[in-house]
Amino acid sequence: MVHATGLMKHGSLPGCWGLEPKNTAVRSPESNGIAESFVKTIKRDYISIMPKPDGLTAAKNLAEAFEHYNEWHPHSALGYRSPREYLRQQASNGLSDNRCLEI
Questions:
Q1: Please, are residues 78 and 71 in contact by the beta-carbon 8 Å criterion?
Q2: 3-state percent helix, strand, coil for the chain, nearest multiple of 5
Q3: Where does the Integrase catalytic domain lie (predicted)?
Q4: Is the pTM of this model over 0.85?
Q5: Which pLDDT tens digit goes with each residue over 26-81?
Q6: Number of domains the chain is built from
Q7: CA nearest to 90, candidates 11, 10, 19, 8
Q8: How many whole angstroms separate alpha carbon 63 and alpha carbon 86?
Q9: Which domain holds residue 6?
Q10: Among candidates 100, 78, 72, which has minimal Cα distance to 88?
């Protein structure tokens, strides 16, 4: 897993998925590519089709977009499965702690 700093504040979440933290150098092209891909996906699949009549509605819709992305959107790193689908498969194979399914 590549991260800047924020994800580790959630404590056991990366460990829950069986991931090892990996820090990258500042201005790392690898990190930039991951971030750019995420932003492009959010803009293309969510923001471009959302109604945005006012700031409050836009913020609410953005929160819903992040929730959908983090739970249901297929991710290439997970073999084009959603995080929920991936965690369920890991749990059914005995490869994951069932507490992961509670997130």
A1: no
A2: 60, 5, 30
A3: 18-83
A4: no
A5: 777 777 788 888 899 999 999 999 999 999 999 999 999 999 998 999 998 899 99
A6: 1
A7: 19
A8: 22
A9: 2-102
A10: 100
